[in-house]
Specification:
Layout lengths: L2 E7 L2 H23 L2 E5 L6 H8 L11 E5 L1 E3 L9 H8 L10 E2 L9 H16 L8 E4 L24 E6 L4 E6 L1 H5 L3 E6 L5 H8 L18 E7 L6
Parallel strand pairs: 1-10, 2-3, 2-6, 3-5, 6-9, 9-10
Antiparallel strand pairs: 4-8, 7-8
Helix pairs in contact: 1-2
The protein binds 6-phosphogluconic acid.
6-phosphogluconic acid (6PG) binds next to loops.
Protein backbone atom coordinates (compact mmCIF):
# COMPACT_ATOMS: atom_id res chain seq x y z
CA UNK A 1 0.00 0.00 0.00
CA UNK A 2 1.40 3.34 -1.12
CA UNK A 3 -0.33 5.36 1.57
CA UNK A 4 -3.32 5.42 3.89
CA UNK A 5 -5.43 8.46 4.64
CA UNK A 6 -8.30 9.12 7.04
CA UNK A 7 -10.70 12.02 6.64
CA UNK A 8 -13.18 12.44 9.49
CA UNK A 9 -16.17 14.76 8.96
CA UNK A 10 -19.00 15.85 11.29
CA UNK A 11 -21.92 14.33 9.39
CA UNK A 12 -22.80 11.80 6.69
CA UNK A 13 -23.57 14.71 4.37
CA UNK A 14 -20.07 16.10 4.95
CA UNK A 15 -18.64 12.64 4.18
CA UNK A 16 -20.54 12.56 0.88
CA UNK A 17 -19.29 16.06 -0.06
CA UNK A 18 -15.68 15.20 0.78
CA UNK A 19 -15.92 11.92 -1.13
CA UNK A 20 -17.40 13.76 -4.11
CA UNK A 21 -14.46 16.18 -4.24
CA UNK A 22 -12.01 13.28 -3.87
CA UNK A 23 -13.78 11.29 -6.62
CA UNK A 24 -13.71 14.28 -9.02
CA UNK A 25 -9.99 14.75 -8.44
CA UNK A 26 -9.19 11.07 -9.04
CA UNK A 27 -11.31 11.00 -12.19
CA UNK A 28 -9.70 14.14 -13.60
CA UNK A 29 -6.20 12.81 -12.88
CA UNK A 30 -6.93 9.39 -14.40
CA UNK A 31 -8.45 10.88 -17.56
CA UNK A 32 -5.57 13.35 -17.91
CA UNK A 33 -3.01 10.55 -17.49
CA UNK A 34 -4.65 7.64 -19.37
CA UNK A 35 -7.64 9.01 -21.25
CA UNK A 36 -10.16 7.19 -19.08
CA UNK A 37 -11.15 6.46 -15.49
CA UNK A 38 -12.07 2.91 -14.45
CA UNK A 39 -14.31 2.80 -11.39
CA UNK A 40 -15.80 0.11 -9.16
CA UNK A 41 -18.88 1.44 -7.38
CA UNK A 42 -20.11 0.37 -3.97
CA UNK A 43 -23.67 -0.67 -3.27
CA UNK A 44 -25.54 -0.26 -0.01
CA UNK A 45 -27.05 2.97 1.32
CA UNK A 46 -24.04 5.04 2.38
CA UNK A 47 -22.73 6.02 -1.08
CA UNK A 48 -26.18 7.01 -2.43
CA UNK A 49 -25.75 10.66 -1.38
CA UNK A 50 -22.31 10.74 -3.02
CA UNK A 51 -23.86 9.51 -6.27
CA UNK A 52 -26.56 12.19 -6.04
CA UNK A 53 -23.90 14.88 -5.50
CA UNK A 54 -21.94 13.58 -8.50
CA UNK A 55 -25.08 13.94 -10.64
CA UNK A 56 -25.29 17.61 -9.60
CA UNK A 57 -21.74 18.56 -10.66
CA UNK A 58 -21.50 21.43 -13.06
CA UNK A 59 -20.98 20.57 -16.72
CA UNK A 60 -17.46 19.48 -17.55
CA UNK A 61 -16.25 18.75 -14.00
CA UNK A 62 -16.12 15.08 -15.01
CA UNK A 63 -15.81 13.99 -18.64
CA UNK A 64 -18.39 11.25 -18.10
CA UNK A 65 -18.04 9.45 -21.46
CA UNK A 66 -14.44 8.66 -20.38
CA UNK A 67 -15.58 7.15 -17.09
CA UNK A 68 -16.19 3.38 -17.06
CA UNK A 69 -18.45 2.29 -14.21
CA UNK A 70 -18.31 -1.24 -12.84
CA UNK A 71 -19.95 -2.54 -9.66
CA UNK A 72 -17.97 -4.13 -6.82
CA UNK A 73 -20.88 -6.44 -6.09
CA UNK A 74 -24.53 -7.12 -6.80
CA UNK A 75 -27.41 -8.94 -5.27
CA UNK A 76 -29.11 -11.89 -6.99
CA UNK A 77 -31.93 -9.71 -8.33
CA UNK A 78 -32.93 -8.11 -11.65
CA UNK A 79 -31.79 -4.60 -12.57
CA UNK A 80 -35.13 -3.04 -11.60
CA UNK A 81 -35.41 -4.72 -8.20
CA UNK A 82 -35.55 -2.47 -5.12
CA UNK A 83 -32.51 -4.31 -3.71
CA UNK A 84 -30.42 -3.88 -6.86
CA UNK A 85 -27.16 -1.94 -6.46
CA UNK A 86 -27.39 -1.11 -10.15
CA UNK A 87 -30.87 0.39 -9.67
CA UNK A 88 -29.65 2.46 -6.71
CA UNK A 89 -26.88 3.98 -8.89
CA UNK A 90 -29.23 4.39 -11.87
CA UNK A 91 -31.69 6.39 -9.72
CA UNK A 92 -29.10 8.40 -7.74
CA UNK A 93 -26.70 9.16 -10.61
CA UNK A 94 -27.28 7.82 -14.12
CA UNK A 95 -30.87 8.98 -14.64
CA UNK A 96 -30.00 12.42 -13.21
CA UNK A 97 -27.10 13.14 -15.55
CA UNK A 98 -28.52 15.49 -18.15
CA UNK A 99 -26.18 15.20 -21.12
CA UNK A 100 -22.99 13.14 -21.16
CA UNK A 101 -23.22 9.71 -19.53
CA UNK A 102 -20.55 7.29 -18.31
CA UNK A 103 -20.02 3.86 -19.85
CA UNK A 104 -21.87 1.39 -17.62
CA UNK A 105 -21.09 -2.29 -17.10
CA UNK A 106 -23.89 -3.87 -15.03
CA UNK A 107 -23.33 -7.21 -13.31
CA UNK A 108 -25.86 -9.33 -15.28
CA UNK A 109 -27.84 -10.74 -12.35
CA UNK A 110 -31.54 -11.52 -12.32
CA UNK A 111 -31.85 -13.52 -15.47
CA UNK A 112 -29.34 -16.32 -14.83
CA UNK A 113 -27.48 -18.05 -12.01
CA UNK A 114 -25.06 -15.95 -9.95
CA UNK A 115 -22.26 -18.30 -11.05
CA UNK A 116 -23.00 -17.54 -14.70
CA UNK A 117 -23.38 -13.82 -14.01
CA UNK A 118 -19.99 -13.78 -12.26
CA UNK A 119 -18.29 -15.62 -15.14
CA UNK A 120 -19.87 -13.30 -17.71
CA UNK A 121 -18.84 -10.21 -15.77
CA UNK A 122 -15.25 -11.34 -15.44
CA UNK A 123 -15.19 -12.03 -19.20
CA UNK A 124 -16.52 -8.51 -19.77
CA UNK A 125 -13.70 -7.11 -17.63
CA UNK A 126 -11.07 -9.21 -19.42
CA UNK A 127 -12.36 -8.08 -22.82
CA UNK A 128 -12.29 -4.48 -21.58
CA UNK A 129 -8.65 -4.94 -20.57
CA UNK A 130 -7.78 -6.28 -24.07
CA UNK A 131 -4.99 -8.40 -22.67
CA UNK A 132 -3.49 -5.56 -20.68
CA UNK A 133 -3.49 -5.61 -16.90
CA UNK A 134 -6.91 -4.69 -15.49
CA UNK A 135 -6.44 -1.95 -12.89
CA UNK A 136 -9.14 0.18 -11.30
CA UNK A 137 -8.39 3.85 -10.93
CA UNK A 138 -11.04 4.25 -8.23
CA UNK A 139 -12.76 1.70 -5.98
CA UNK A 140 -15.55 2.83 -3.65
CA UNK A 141 -16.37 0.50 -0.76
CA UNK A 142 -18.81 0.43 2.14
CA UNK A 143 -18.43 -1.46 5.39
CA UNK A 144 -20.98 -3.75 6.97
CA UNK A 145 -21.40 -3.81 10.75
CA UNK A 146 -19.99 -7.37 10.56
CA UNK A 147 -16.81 -6.07 8.85
CA UNK A 148 -17.80 -7.26 5.36
CA UNK A 149 -17.13 -5.14 2.30
CA UNK A 150 -18.53 -5.52 -1.21
CA UNK A 151 -20.08 -8.99 -0.82
CA UNK A 152 -17.01 -10.41 0.87
CA UNK A 153 -18.83 -11.62 3.97
CA UNK A 154 -17.26 -13.33 7.00
CA UNK A 155 -16.57 -17.05 6.61
CA UNK A 156 -17.65 -17.21 2.97
CA UNK A 157 -15.89 -18.93 0.08
CA UNK A 158 -15.20 -15.72 -1.86
CA UNK A 159 -12.63 -14.70 0.76
CA UNK A 160 -10.36 -17.58 -0.24
CA UNK A 161 -10.50 -17.20 -4.03
CA UNK A 162 -7.47 -15.48 -5.53
CA UNK A 163 -7.45 -16.75 -9.14
CA UNK A 164 -10.72 -15.06 -10.16
CA UNK A 165 -11.73 -11.40 -10.34
CA UNK A 166 -15.48 -11.97 -9.92
CA UNK A 167 -17.21 -14.83 -8.13
CA UNK A 168 -20.58 -15.96 -6.87
CA UNK A 169 -20.77 -15.99 -3.11
CA UNK A 170 -23.35 -17.81 -0.99
CA UNK A 171 -24.10 -15.77 2.14
CA UNK A 172 -25.81 -18.27 4.44
CA UNK A 173 -26.53 -15.80 7.23
CA UNK A 174 -28.53 -13.67 4.81
CA UNK A 175 -29.95 -16.73 3.00
CA UNK A 176 -28.87 -15.13 -0.23
CA UNK A 177 -26.44 -15.38 -3.11
CA UNK A 178 -24.32 -12.49 -4.27
CA UNK A 179 -21.85 -11.68 -7.05
CA UNK A 180 -18.71 -10.00 -5.77
CA UNK A 181 -15.34 -8.86 -6.93
CA UNK A 182 -12.53 -10.61 -5.10
CA UNK A 183 -9.86 -8.92 -3.00
CA UNK A 184 -7.06 -9.23 -5.61
CA UNK A 185 -8.86 -7.20 -8.29
CA UNK A 186 -10.02 -4.61 -5.76
CA UNK A 187 -6.47 -4.37 -4.41
CA UNK A 188 -5.09 -3.69 -7.89
CA UNK A 189 -6.64 -0.22 -7.60
CA UNK A 190 -4.75 3.04 -7.65
CA UNK A 191 -7.18 4.63 -5.18
CA UNK A 192 -9.59 2.88 -2.80
CA UNK A 193 -12.02 4.74 -0.53
CA UNK A 194 -14.17 3.36 2.26
CA UNK A 195 -17.20 5.50 3.11
CA UNK A 196 -18.36 4.58 6.62
CA UNK A 197 -20.96 6.40 8.71
CA UNK A 198 -22.85 5.53 11.89
CA UNK A 199 -21.80 4.28 15.30
CA UNK A 200 -23.22 0.86 14.40
CA UNK A 201 -20.02 0.35 12.37
CA UNK A 202 -17.71 0.94 15.38
CA UNK A 203 -17.28 -2.77 16.17
CA UNK A 204 -16.27 -3.44 12.57
CA UNK A 205 -13.82 -0.52 12.53
CA UNK A 206 -12.22 -1.68 15.80
CA UNK A 207 -11.80 -5.25 14.49
CA UNK A 208 -10.45 -4.22 11.08
CA UNK A 209 -7.94 -1.77 12.56
CA UNK A 210 -7.24 -3.94 15.60
CA UNK A 211 -4.19 -6.07 16.37
CA UNK A 212 -5.83 -9.37 15.41
CA UNK A 213 -5.50 -10.09 11.73
CA UNK A 214 -8.30 -12.46 10.82
CA UNK A 215 -9.77 -11.67 7.39
CA UNK A 216 -12.02 -14.71 7.60
CA UNK A 217 -13.90 -12.96 10.39
CA UNK A 218 -13.10 -9.38 9.36
CA UNK A 219 -13.06 -9.44 5.52
CA UNK A 220 -12.40 -5.73 5.05
CA UNK A 221 -8.87 -6.50 6.33
CA UNK A 222 -8.29 -8.07 2.89
CA UNK A 223 -8.42 -4.61 1.30
CA UNK A 224 -4.76 -3.56 1.06
CA UNK A 225 -4.57 -1.74 -2.28
CA UNK A 226 -1.41 -1.26 -4.32
CA UNK A 227 -2.23 2.43 -4.37
CA UNK A 228 -3.79 4.74 -1.82
CA UNK A 229 -6.31 3.68 0.81
CA UNK A 230 -8.71 6.38 2.02
CA UNK A 231 -11.22 6.26 4.88
CA UNK A 232 -14.03 8.83 4.90
CA UNK A 233 -15.92 8.56 8.21
CA UNK A 234 -18.33 10.66 10.18
CA UNK A 235 -17.78 11.79 13.78
CA UNK A 236 -19.86 9.00 15.27
CA UNK A 237 -16.89 6.70 14.64
CA UNK A 238 -13.67 6.63 16.66
CA UNK A 239 -10.77 5.54 14.48
CA UNK A 240 -8.23 3.62 16.63
C1 LIG B 1 -23.99 -4.05 -0.65
C2 LIG B 1 -22.63 -3.43 -0.45
C3 LIG B 1 -22.19 -3.69 0.95
C4 LIG B 1 -22.38 -2.39 1.69
C5 LIG B 1 -22.27 -2.58 3.18
C6 LIG B 1 -22.61 -1.28 3.91
O1 LIG B 1 -24.24 -4.65 -1.71
O2 LIG B 1 -24.81 -3.86 0.26
O3 LIG B 1 -21.75 -3.75 -1.36
O4 LIG B 1 -20.86 -4.10 1.08
O5 LIG B 1 -21.38 -1.45 1.26
O6 LIG B 1 -23.19 -3.60 3.55
O7 LIG B 1 -23.95 -0.95 3.59
P1 LIG B 1 -24.58 0.45 4.08
O8 LIG B 1 -23.85 1.53 3.33
O9 LIG B 1 -26.03 0.35 3.67
O10 LIG B 1 -24.38 0.52 5.57
Amino acid sequence: MKSSHHVQLPTAEDVAVAARDWFVEQCQQAIAARGKCIVALSGGSTPKRLYELLSELSEGMIDWPKVHLFWGDERDVPANHSQSNYRMVREALLDRLKAAKPVVYRIPTGQQSVERAAREYELMMREFACGARFQFDVVLLGLGDDAHTASLFPETIALTITDRWVVANQVLKLSTNRVTMTAPVLNSARHVAFLVCGSNKQWAIDKIMGATRNPTLYPAQLIQPEGELWWFTDESLKMP
